[in-house]
Amino acid sequence: MSAYYPSRQDIETAHERILPYIHRTPVLTNAYINQLTGCEVYFKAENFQKIGAFKARGGLNAALSIPKEKLGKGLCTHSSGNHAQAIAYAAKMLQVPAFIVMPSTANKVKVAAVRAYGAEVIFCEPNQKAREEMVQRVEKETGAYFIHPYNDIQVIEGQATAAKELLSAYPDLELLFVPVGGGGLLSGTCLSAKYFGKDVKVYAGEPEAVNDAWQSIQQDTIAPATGNPTIADGLTVSLGNLTYPIIKQEVSGILTVKEDEIRSAMKLVWERMKIVIEPSSAVPLAALLANTDLFRAKKIGIIISGGNVDLAAPLPFQAV
Amino acid sequence: MSAYYPSRQDIETAHERILPYIHRTPVLTNAYINQLTGCEVYFKAENFQKIGAFKARGGLNAALSIPKEKLGKGLCTHSSGNHAQAIAYAAKMLQVPAFIVMPSTANKVKVAAVRAYGAEVIFCEPNQKAREEMVQRVEKETGAYFIHPYNDIQVIEGQATAAKELLSAYPDLELLFVPVGGGGLLSGTCLSAKYFGKDVKVYAGEPEAVNDAWQSIQQDTIAPATGNPTIADGLTVSLGNLTYPIIKQEVSGILTVKEDEIRSAMKLVWERMKIVIEPSSAVPLAALLANTDLFRAKKIGIIISGGNVDLAAPLPFQAV
Fold first, then answer.
1. Contacts (Cβ under 8 Å, ≥6 apart) of A255
2. Contact call for B312 and A312, based on CB within 8 A
């Protein structure tokens, strides 16, 4: 599989394109977490991003790149949540309709948020095949333009802008940690590390239960989604043929973590940093905490991917 | 009861005194909450303060004002939580012992945090009389210097610095909203509004269940604590003879809110702003939401007092 690399200029253009619609999110630090990890950790708080997650970046860049004449029938996509909100938000900004295929298990807050942007939600079985089939049907029936949640060059360019902002604020970072699901954020982060960092290594955190990205690197071919459950519901999908080759080439390692490690890291962030993050966002910190020996005294950037949690339900780290 | 007013210079000196030990906390905004309230709301995020609450300011200012020769035996206080942590933190900074009287019902996270600063915790019955008696005993037995949680001029000056920072960042604010318990934050905020604001009105939010501050204004005398339960566990105490006269003179209104209104406002902040705030911190926003007609199109500063919540227990807004 040959890798297509968006250029430095492509990412800069993407950033300019989306800037009017996104927040320049803050970078947070925490003395206690620095002490625990023995590192200087800089958290890029994309939970404070529009729609509550970094996915606003990729969705907007893709939607804003579509020629006007192809936009009339609106946008469609499939997503367990945050990309769904991103496309619904982008469609609202562009004043076109949006049709969003979501798994029947998607969290209620995310479904409500998608509808609040005026999008139509179509439910499907909670597996990748069902999602893809349903979105094809929706595409055919509505004529809406399909924006893939991660396997899309414009989406990758958009996600890259989070690490670009982080590296522009903290040019001395030595490592970047992000979660990996479909690989949009990870491949974009690899590109920004290459173009905007000084010898920056990129690591991904992945739940052991859905370790298909780790498997993919081992086997040198895209492994299918495991289908296992995980509390990190944003990370259940497999890599794509656009994200995988970049990741294979650029990533320094994929570190898998147990569900309990994700729970603990999530609680640590809520308790000590006083911010609401979703389970997927705790995965990179969990990976760092489980491997502090490998990263002693490093300056590390972590992208907090999002903060969309169903607060009415028990939280993953609460005693039930 | 005559009012003693710390001067503008006193508050400036307090601010300089504590600056090396505190965070200059960010000011956050939220488009959805602006839409809901019809106002421009600026949240001073003291949940990101050292010890997770504004109380670090007053505790530090008081501790740092004590003459060195009186400090040898350490510090003591009584508090349901955040002032306890503030004094424990201040004692650690000054390298002296701390003895903290806490009600037996105090939340576990706060107790653990107090101990983590190296302080000794002494439990008492959960009422104001028991607290005061116990702290007198501790003072006598240990010789530690007592710092009252709110009825103390240096504490009031320290709490005033939160509004001072907010007004220096947003000089056009027309109103400030804070919670009221013992009145340290409220009286301090009144002083900063007077000295550093341009015709700024100050309102307090208070739980209906513990409406002694509201009663005090009505009756023109300090009403005792009601003793009723409230989820806003930081606001159960009554005003003091130093805080009350300033509040009586300066406050534009005390707005009481129901427990359900506090729950909803708390959930709104967690869900939309992605920050962890404690129930007491949601009281001013609840008061604004219940009275939007009175404050249409105003520029409002709200001090988010703290973020110390026991995350292992069910949250106040969760279905149990």
1. A203, A204, A205, A206, A287, A290, A291
2. no
Among A29, A107, A264, A271, the strongest candidate for a mutation testing the B interface, having the largest count of B CBs within 10 A, is: A271
For residue A264, the one-letter residue type is S
What does each C-alpha distance from A195 to A163, B213, B225 come to in angstroms? 10, 59, 61
As a whole number, mean pLDDT of residues B66-73 equals: 93
Contacts of A271 in chain B (CB under 8 A): 109, 276, 311
Write the pLDDT tens digit of every residue in A277-307. Answer: 999 999 999 999 999 999 999 999 999 999 9
pLDDT attached to residue B202 = 98
Catalytic positions of B, please?
Answer: 55, 80
For the CA atoms of chain B, what is the radius of gyration?
18
Residue A294: C-alpha distances to residues A114, A213, B219 (Å):
40, 21, 65
Q: What is the pLDDT of residue B205?
A: 98
Whether the model pTM is above 0.90: yes
Task: Tell me the chain A residues in contact with residue B265 when contact means C-beta distances shorter than 8 Å.
Answer: none
What mean pLDDT comes out for the span B95-115?
Answer: 91
Instruction: Determine which helix (DSSP H) or strand (DSSP E) holds A28, and give its type and residue range.
Output: strand A27-28
Min distance B237 CA to chain A CA atoms (Å):
25
Asked if A311 lies within 8 A of B311 by C-beta distance, the reply is no
Chain B CB contacts of A311 under 8 Å are 267, 270-271, 315, 317-318
pLDDT, mean of residues B70-94: 94
Sign of CA dihedral A261, A262, A263, A269: positive
Query: pLDDT exceeding 90 applies to what percent of chain B?
Result: 90
Cβ pair B274:A109 closer than 8 A: no
Percent of chain A with pLDDT over 90: 90
Who among B275, B313, B317 is closest to A274 (CB)? B275
CA dist., res. A180 & res. A252, Å (int): 13
**What are the residue ranges in chain A where pLDDT is below 70?**
319-320
- Residue A312: the pLDDT is 87
Closest Cβ–Cβ partner in A52, A275, A312 for B276: A275
Q: Which residue among A270, A274, A317 places its CB closest to the CB of B48? A: A274
Q: What is the pLDDT at residue B218?
A: 97
pLDDT in the model for residue A35: 96
Its ipTM equals 0.93
Which of B93, B109, B271, B310 has the most A C-beta neighbours within 10 Å, making it the best mutation to test the interface with A? Answer: B271
Q: What is the pLDDT of residues B171-200, one digit of tens each?
A: 999 999 999 999 999 999 999 999 999 999
Q: What is the DSSP string of chain B?
A: -PPP---HHHHHHHHHHHGGGS----EE--HHHHHHHTSEEEEEEGGGSGGGBTHHHHHHHHHHHS-GGG-TT-EEEE-SSHHHHHHHHHHHHHT--EEEEEETTS-HHHHHHHHHTTPEEEEE-SSHHHHHHHHHHHHHHH-PEE--SSSSHHHHHHHHHHHHHHHHH-TT--EEEEE-SSSHHHHHHHHHHHHHSSS-EEEEEEEGGGTHHHHHHHHTSPPPP-----S-GGG-SPP-TTHHHHHHHH-SEEEEE-HHHHHHHHHHIIIII-B---HHHHHHHHHHHTTGGGGTT-EEEEEE-B----TTSPPTTS--
